[in-house]
Amino acid sequence: MLTIFGGIGLFLLGMSMLTNGLKEIAGEALKRWLNKFTRGTFSSMLSGIFMTILVQSSTATTLLTIGFVSAGLLTFIQSIGVIIGANIGSTSTGWIISLIGFKISLQAMALPIIGIGVFMSFVAPRDIKKFGGVLAGFGLLFLGIDMLQQGMGDAQNFIAFDKIPANSFFSVFLLIIIGVIMTIIMQASSAAMAATLAALFTGAIDFEQAAYLVIGQNIGTTATALFAAIGASVSAKRTAMTHLLFNVVTAIIVTATFPYFLQLVRWITEAIVGRFDETMALAIFHTLFSVLGALIFMPFIKQFAKLLIKIVPERENALTRDLDTKLLEVPSVALDVSFKTIRDIMAVLTTAQSNLMVTKKITAEYERKMDEVEEAIQMTNDFLNAIQSTSTRERNKHIAILHTQDHLVRLVKVLREEQQLEALVLQPQLMTEWQEILADVQQNLSGEEPISKIAQILEGHSRMMAQARRNKRNEYFERSVANETELDVAVSKVGALLWIDRLVYHYWRSTARMAEFQQIDEEKRLKSSSDKTA
After folding, report:
1. 392: confidence class by pLDDT, cuts 50, 70, 90
2. What are the tens digits of pLDDT across the range 211-257?
């Protein structure tokens, strides 16, 4: 049993190193791919399959998907297609093990790969080191399979699978539960699949028992997402529910039609290799399981999305619904989600201010909105503080958004001051001009167009306002000295003038930094386009 536990540990360590390395190498490319090739339902599913095969982690694909939904770059319906595709793509681990894992001496192959990988990680240049981690992870993964294979040879002495043949309802139910527990304990469906394949190859279990274990493992893999969704964003909760319903419904259908499903697997296996190879047949079984689920759910994906939205409604503060801590594992996505959240906060703040200028009084609704905005700003600040930017591009975006956050905090402080109502009375012309500009700001923030245009308009108005402050301030005091107005009135007008100046300035600087954030992405996109045409 110690050999089995050691094999599982090595497999999980190798899979973690492999996935993290591949995410680091291809993370930005995956992000562009997902954004470009998820326009339709079918293309979304294909993107999910491709990405999961590439990084060998449906969790990584899921995190990117949640991030893109949160950032408004994917619709929830498109995200369901990606998640379904990720389920299909996650079956690739079983194919790798069944095609390679039991056909060659894994230890003889794994040890040199681990050695080369670790050597590269220590002495290679910085850009090459991440490839060393991938190689080392790949080697550890196969060394773990080799240990599993050795340990499973003696597994019959410890686990009496011969006592639970798959010929009764109770036995079938027990095997499925064991499969669920395996995945929950190992925290990875790929590790559970590897252990099952090793047990099947060594004869510790028969094929039908292995198939029922795989059904349980597909249900068990949803537990990780469900646990992670506790206290997470609405997007994460809906994604977890997508996983659960997809796998549970498919499991029920496969279990109910098991003899026919098994016959189909046998026919496909014999058609491919000319005989019934049990380890390959199990990989085929796993793949057909997910493909069947896709065939069931994809035609009704809109109805499925509506059901999930009803099951998991929006939470109270909608502004922070997308700030899911799981996204911190992918800094570029976390930054995009933070940007979208700040844009939403600015939109709510602008709408509340516009309404106040119409009513000319502070209402309970205005106070509620301001409280909601302040809470959202604090939560966003905590989220930004937890992001660990790695690349130069990510750091520049991070800095830009922190500047935006700083001006946003100062903007809220300005709007909390009592001079807001005084400005409406004492500076009616300036406030009317500002109200017209606010309408343009509101329209820009509620759409998807670049913020640079509105930032330029606000810059011009801020410079005009600064000049008006200098001119009018002196004018008010001159009129007071000439006894044309009371000093208290002059001071109040100057105070209102200074208040408007600060208000417009922080609006301008907030949007200017947001435009800077967008410009970094645009420069990256243009560079990628020019590289392709070169």
Report:
1. confident
2. 999 999 888 877 766 766 666 667 767 877 888 888 899 999 999 99
DSSP letter at 232? -
Q: Give the predicted TM-score (pTM) of the model.
A: 0.60
The gap between the terminal CA atoms of the chain, to the nearest Å, is: 57
> Maximum CA pair distance of the chain?
107
* d(C-alpha 377, C-alpha 412), whole Å: 10
The full DSSP string for 100-139 is: IITTS-HHHHHHHHHHHHHHHHHHS-HHHHHHHHHHHHHH
Cα 413 to chain center, whole Å? 32
Residues 6+ apart with CB under 8 A from 307: none
CA 332 to chain centre: 10
Beta-carbon count within 10 A of 9 CB: 15
Rounded Cα gap, residues 182 and 224, in angstroms: 12
**Residue 83: burial class (beta carbons within 10 Å; 0-12, 13-18, 19+):** buried
Query: Which positions ≥6 away from 301 have C-beta within 8 Å?
Result: 41, 77, 80, 81
pLDDT at 144 over 80: no
Give the rounded distance of the alpha carbon of 6 from its chain centre.
Answer: 32
What phi-psi label fits residue 57: left (phi over 0), alpha (psi between -120 and 50 degrees) or beta?
A: beta
